[in-house]
Amino acid sequence: MNTDNNIAQGMNKPTLSLVQIANMAIGFFGIQMAFSLQGANASRIFQTLGSDVESLAIYWLAGPLTGLVVQPLVGHFSDNAWTRFGRRRPFFVAGAIWAAVALTFMPNAPSLWIAVASLWVLDASINVSMEPFRAFVGDKLPEQQRTIGFAMQTFFIGVGGVLGSWLPQILTWSGVSNEVINGRVPDNVVYAFAIGAAAVIITIAWTVVTTGEYSREEVKAFEAADAAKGKKDDYAGPVDRSVSFYNLWGAVTIVGGLLLIFLIIDRSWEEELYVIGGGFAVLGVLFFIRSILMGLGGKQNFLTHIIDDLVAMPPIMKQLAVVQFFSWVGFFVMWIFTTPAVAENYFGTTDAGSGTYQDAGDWVGIMFGVYSLVSAAYAFVLPVIAGKLGLRLTHAVNLLVGAAGFASYVLFSHPDMLILSMICVGVAWASVLTMPYAILSNGIPPLKMGVYMGIFNFFIVLPQLVVASIMSTILKNLLGGDTILIFLVGAFSLCLAAISLFFVNSTRHKWDPDYVAQD
User: Fold this and answer.
1) What single string gives the DSSP state of each residue in 136-161?
2) Same domain assignment for residues 448 and 464
3) Domain count within the chain
4) To 10 degrees, the CA torsion angle through 399, 443, 31, 116?
5) Is 401 domain-assigned?
6) Using CA atoms, how far apart are residues 336 and 47, in angstroms rounded to an integer?
7) How far is it, in rounded angstroms, from Cα 475 to Cα 55?
């Protein structure tokens, strides 16, 4: 073996202690506190400020639309931000500051539309911090520790989710009012969001201070070390597409988007569907822009890089995208509709201004805290189970357990029994936050970890758009407005995700017969 290979093999990533892994993951505690406060209380805030239940989904569109734009951009720029402060850490800090501002402002918004705008800023800020955190595991940890790394993130997500979900109820028990006075959001929600803002700043600052990053040269050396051992990513590099390729797909997506918009107008479909039609049209425009730049001599910028990387997605990423899509449909149904469903079916009210409705909102916070607590505990069990059953089978079983939890909503007659539902949901939630990333991180190139984690999260954003665009229509026209039945849709979607896992290629490095994935 030559000298260069000897040097490369000497640059294997060091293994980290559990304390070091915890330090690099603790920022997710604050991120998830913010996310859980949003998930458990945004619908409640919107209804308190005057929204009806049929309009909730469209207000939640702010989040996925923001994520669709922010995630790949942040991923691309964090891949290339080789600063003296680090590659990912500047994004952690920027996202934390803006998330804290949005958390403080959202429950104090004087009107519904300002609250929706605050949700937009909050979701963008969470994405700015969260996507680099996902790439951080691939950056810092050797392959054999990545499942543990993502599981540690899941643990802090669970703990942060518990506190974020339970905080309004804890404050109520402590004597803080949960009453709506003069159309204002209750004090317990306002104070909970302020505490969440502080948690975001403190925990992300801890990660930034305690965890360093590797330089560009070190990352390249680690990649060279893997190559010297015959280990290669399931990735063929940027695909050299022609001008005609981008023109063809630009035309197809624009025509498809405009056709959908025409059908929405002609058949008076729900206005939320404009988002999907417009999204296809915008993608087509981006393809045409890419072809024009190629015709001008192949000029490159951040947009062309992201489009090229999107087209050149590794095969395993495309397969996992289907799993992600159906997995997240179920969870977005839960986050949007649990509060009105529990209030109507278990507390007997649809009046968002009543004390009974606010009691239902507090109970939903407790429910969400339970599934977060279960996911935190189950995160430590996941690597052990995956070592026995493999990543795919473990994830499939966990998703089916979650589907049973959603289906049980329609069976139980007392709100206390929904705790059992949340235990099942917590098992699936831990798996969704760990297993797909553990599978994916070993199949994408280290220097593009950020942008591919961002693009992968398209398949979290797209189900948000679908749920926000069509689920209210399904609720009103197919389910007779009975909010509890919508959880059967969530259960069915998780079942489809579990089935899709068996079409994911288990061979990670397919040209090396001696090196296969853990499952």
Assistant:
1) HHHHHS-GGGHHHHHHHHHHHHHHHH
2) yes
3) 2
4) -80
5) yes
6) 12
7) 12
Residue 15: count of CB within 10 angstroms of its CB = 12
Structure confidence by residue, pLDDT tens digits, 196-213: 999 999 999 999 999 988
Chain centre distance of CA 186 = 28
Domain extent at residue 197: 12-233+312-503
Burial (CB count within 10 angstroms: exposed 0-12, middle 13-18, buried 19+), residue 348: exposed
- 3-state SS of 41-75 is HHHHHHHHCCCCHHHHHHHCCHHHHHHHHHHHHHH
Task: Express each pLDDT in 126-181 by its tens digit.
Answer: 888 887 887 888 788 887 788 888 888 888 988 888 888 788 888 988 998 888 77
Torsion angle (degrees, nearest 10) of CA 262, 263, 265, 269: -150
* Contacts of residue 344, Cβ cutoff 8 Å, sequence gap at least 6: 350, 483, 484
pLDDT one-digit tens code per residue, 318-374: 889 999 999 999 898 888 888 888 888 888 888 877 888 878 887 888 888 888 889
Maximal C-alpha separation, the chain: 77
Q: Which two tokens stand for residue 302?
A: 């951040």
pLDDT per residue over 235-263, tens digit each?
545 555 678 888 888 899 999 989 988 98
Neighbours of 175 (CB within 10 A): 7
Q: Are residues 149 and 267 in the same domain?
A: no
